[in-house]
Design brief:
Number of helices: 0
Helix content: under 10%
Shape: globular
Largest sheet: 7 strands, mixed
Radius of gyration: 14 Å
Oligomer: single chain
Strand content: over 45%
Structural class: mainly beta
Order of helices and strands: EEEEEEEEEEE
Length: 116
């Protein structure tokens, strides 16, 4: 099994930044894709960004320019740098990975609240 541990969520004011981290551990074979999704209050879960093992990234259109995804393959860790946060970015952010052997795994989620 693969376990995901997310960190970095919290309460920030509009315009501030946060950096989320997600560390994968356990019986990892190959983390082909690592990424972040989010679920705003009362809404469905949506893609934020993904990054492949070779470094190719994909962003939801609304996140481009403000959010940056990166990963440290040696540490099985994926990061999400979020800048210029807005109240509408308030959501539970979920780490998601696809491992060649274990398939798709979700983290427990970390809450990001953007409010003045």
């Amino acid at each position: 099994q693969v376990q995901l541990e997310e960190s970095g969520g919290g309460l920030v004011q509009p315009g501030e930044s946060l950096r989320l981290s997600c560390v994968a551990s356990g019986s990892i074979f190959r983390l082909q894709v690592m990424g972040w999704y989010r679920q705003p209050p009362g809404k469905e879960r949506e893609l934020v960004a993904t990054v492949t093992s070779s470094g190719s990234t994909n962003y939801a259109d609304s996140m481009k320019g403000r959010f940056t995804i990166s990963r440290d393959n040696a540490k099985n860790t994926v990061f999400l740098q979020m800048n210029s946060l807005k109240p509408e970015d308030t959501a539970v952010y979920y780490c998601h990975v696809y491992d060649t052997w274990n398939g798709a795994i979700w983290g427990q989620g970390t809450l990001v609240t953007v409010s003045s």
